[in-house]
Amino acid sequence: WQSYLAIVTFLTLPNARAQSAKAPPEDVVVLVSIEGRAELASAGTGNWTPATNNQVLHLGDRLRTDKYSRAIIRFSKWGQLRVREASLFTIEPPREPGRRPLLNLLKGFFYFFNRDKAIELDLQNRLASAATRGTEFQVAVAEDGRMEVSVLEGEVELRNSLGPVTLSSGQ
């Protein structure tokens, strides 16, 4: 019996190690799908290249969608982000070590949704920043930087030079 247990343990240990080595880190951001055309500029470069389905995005990367195009981004911790046509955003490093990355929404329309738990994200653009505690909301960023947030479920705290304001479901 002991030798059988030793053989089973021996055979399953390498497999368990291989599985844990393949497990993605918690903060993986993946471009799940593209309809139309999307381009990616890797961190620190100005070179735009065609983005592909299942492409991993990294801190500092910029993604843009063309006219009549859209993309779905999956955050392993925060659910999904749907990016509509003519949109542009950057994944910035966290404001403080150990915090979540910051999404810099430069222009376009973004829809955030998570079925499992509240989405806690830090967003910013040229005119305001937002901390979210919601499961479903959308953000539209105009060419002039004006940001409109619609909260379908949860809360979003917006902040600019005039101070904070909290938006709740339906606002």
Tell the overall outline.
globular
SSE-based structural type: mainly beta
The helix/strand order is HEEEEEEEEEEEEE
The first-to-last residue Cα distance is 65 Å
Q: Report the portion of residues in β strands.
A: over 45%
Strand count, sense and barrel status of the largest sheet are: 13 strands, mixed
Mean pLDDT: 79
Helix residue percentage: 10-25%
Q: Find the count of extended strands (DSSP E, 2+ residues).
A: 13
Radius of gyration: 20 Å
Task: Summarize the topology.
Elements: H1 2-22, E1 29-35, E2 38-41, E3 48-50, E4 55-57, E5 62-65, E6 70-75, E7 79-83, E8 88-92, E9 102-113, E10 122-124, E11 129-141, E12 147-160, E13 163-168
Parallel strand pairs: 9-10
Antiparallel strand pairs: 1-4, 1-6, 2-3, 2-5, 5-8, 6-7, 7-9, 8-9, 9-11, 10-11, 11-12, 12-13
